[in-house]
Amino acid sequence: MVTTMRFQDKRVFITGAASGIGAATYELFRREGARVVGVDVNASDDLLHCDVADPESVTRAMKETVDGLGGLDICVNVAGINAMVSFEDMTLEVWQKILGVNVTGPMLVTKAALPHLRESRGNVVTVASISGMRAQPYFSAYGTSKAGLLNLMKSLAVELAADQVRVNCVCPGGVGALPSPDEAAQIPGLDGIDLSLLMRMQGVLPGVTEQADIAEAIAYLASDAARSVTGAALVVDRATVW
After folding, report:
1. 35, β-bridge pairs
2. Catalytic residue at 142?
3. Contact criterion met (CB below 8 Å) for 202 and 178
4. HEC letters along the chain
5. Of residues 26, 138, 142, 220, which has the active-site annotation?
6. What is the pTM (predicted TM-score) of this model?
7. How confident is the model over 71-118, as pLDDT tens digits?
């Protein structure tokens, strides 16, 4: 198998790199020659600690990254959280936490990265969601956060165009299979949720979307192949023809 090297010596910062889409993206960029710093609230020997909702934590992580890499070419915002809960049961604490991580977090990270991206004429790729583009049951806080995130990044794409800094989003649908009714019945907190509403999110394409599929979409938008693309919301979703 021949590995392409789209990101040879590119300097990359990735949030949410400890698991899921973030981990898959971290590995893809490294495999294709990038010099990558991954951050997460769950630090490890390979990853820096960073709470994206904490301005001081973001500033420290970005400074350490830029000092170590000598600059920055690509900023990837993957870190995010969710809670499946009916609106009636939504608490202010959960609402504020989701918006803090999913909207304020990418704002803080992108703002910290911006001086370095201006210098390199780099780009930002942010993981939003189809939940920010259409209504989905039991995801009111998550959907609101992702809708705000999409608008934020589209606004930045226009604002930063003169600096030749591209800003794009990937909007995944469901990643992995939805739980069956029997499986969902064993998940704490899903009592009383109408699973038939969730089944409407099932795909028209067979199979499931994998984390690696989202990582590939991120890599495309970050690569020179997308040099004429900014302000995009690239949907990766088997469920709907958009």
Report:
1. 11
2. yes
3. yes
4. CCCCCCCCCCEEEEECCCCHHHHHHHHHHHHCCCEEEEEECCCCCCCEECCCCCHHHHHHHHHHHHHHHCCCCEEEECCCCCCCCCHHHCCHHHHHHHHHHHHHHHHHHHHHHHHHHHHHCCEEEEECCHHHCCCCCCCHHHHHHHHHHHHHHHHHHHHCHHHCCEEEEEEECCECCCCCHHHHCCCCCCCCCCHHHHHCCCCCCCCCECHHHHHHHHHHHHCHHHCCCCCCEEEECCCCCC
5. 142
6. 0.90
7. 999 999 999 999 988 999 999 999 999 999 999 999 999 999 999 999
Burial 110-130 (b: 16+ CB within 10 A, else e): bebbbebbeeeebbbbbbbbb
